[in-house]
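Progress note, sequence design subtask.
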């Protein structure tokens, strides 16, 4: 594996999962693999779990890490090609990326959807400048349309807790005060489909995800029905894809609550975090034993460690 930007970069998902569970049981077994190597983590957006878990994963492998928050610590970067740079952005990504690449062996990058243009976001305009010009492997730490490290940890969590071979996994939209990217739900569907699970998607009208991520799936617009027989409830807000970046509904009846969880088959509650309590999910549900959000977050370290281990082994 050269770059890690989606599940499609993983040659063998079953083996990758085995690697993740192996590093989880033996966190210090590979402490020399990345010795003398450096990972730079670049953030265009905020982070708590991704920053700490990815940095920790790199440290577990003996790597050095450097973190750069673009909007606070560095020059503001121009990302558009062909522009006259007479504004407030002193440096272009076209130089910044290969310069960063010159100082390290792996780059992690976080760059959310900007909601300025669906074409730019769905073309991964920022991420692809990194893969094209860095000269070193790139790990997506949530790009415009995918969050593969999150989905990998989600998959680990379900594998650990499932009680049947093909669990029924329900992705449900839930209300939120802001317009959020589709990266988490897109990626989640891609990984869950590859794992062969029984997948159900539920959301209000107008929140249909991009067709490339919905392949083979149909939407159940009735959330109550969707919850029936579920083994896992995965809640997430996202803004509209069809009315790109818009909030079309604030309907609080979509908040995941105990009454809805009772319709499931003793389902576990999942969310990538950060989560808005009593918007996405009630206190009662997230504080109940059914909630596995902390385990999910903890698994981020092992998912990231597995990814970095695979990259280090394949790019000696
Ligand atoms: C991001 C998202 O893609 O939805 C990151 C999730 C891992 N979430 C947010 O930006 C939440 C911000 C908020 O205001 O709640």
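Output:
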């Amino acid at each position: 594996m050269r770059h890690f930007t989606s599940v499609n970069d993983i040659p063998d998902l079953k083996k990758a999962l085995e690697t993740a569970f192996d590093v989880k049981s033996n966190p210090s077994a590979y402490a020399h693999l990345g010795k003398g190597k450096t990972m730079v983590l670049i953030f265009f957006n905020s982070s708590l779990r991704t920053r700490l878990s990815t940095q920790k994963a790199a440290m577990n492998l003996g790597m050095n890490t450097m973190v750069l928050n673009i909007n606070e610590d560095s020059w503001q970067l121009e990302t558009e090609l062909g522009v006259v740079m007479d504004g407030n952005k002193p440096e272009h990504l076209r130089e910044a990326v290969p310069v960063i690449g010159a100082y390290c062996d792996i780059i992690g990058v976080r760059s959310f959807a900007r909601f300025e243009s669906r074409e730019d976001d769905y073309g991964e305009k920022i991420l692809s400048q990194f893969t094209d010009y860095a000269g070193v492997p790139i790990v997506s730490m949530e790009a415009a349309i995918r969050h593969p490290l999150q989905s990998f940890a989600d998959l680990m969590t379900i594998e650990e807790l499932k009680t049947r071979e093909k669990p029924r996994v329900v992705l449900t939209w839930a209300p939120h005060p802001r317009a959020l990217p589709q990266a988490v739900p897109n990626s989640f569907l891609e990984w869950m489909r590859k794992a062969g699970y029984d997948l159900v998607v539920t959301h209000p009208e107008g929140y249909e995800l991009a067709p490339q991520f919905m392949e083979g799936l149909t939407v159940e617009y009735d959330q109550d029905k969707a919850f029936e027989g579920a083994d896992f409830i995965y809640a997430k807000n996202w803004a509209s894809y069809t009315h790109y970046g818009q909030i079309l509904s604030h309907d609080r009846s979509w908040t995941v609550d105990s009454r809805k969880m009772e319709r499931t088959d003793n389902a576990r509650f999942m969310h990538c975090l950060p989560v808005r309590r009593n918007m996405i999910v009630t206190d009662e549900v997230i504080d109940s034993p059914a909630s596995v959000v902390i385990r999910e977050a903890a698994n981020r370290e092992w998912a990231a460690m597995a990814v970095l281990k695979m990259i280090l082994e394949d790019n000696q």
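The chain has a mean pLDDT of 97. Work on this subtask will continue into the next period as scheduled.
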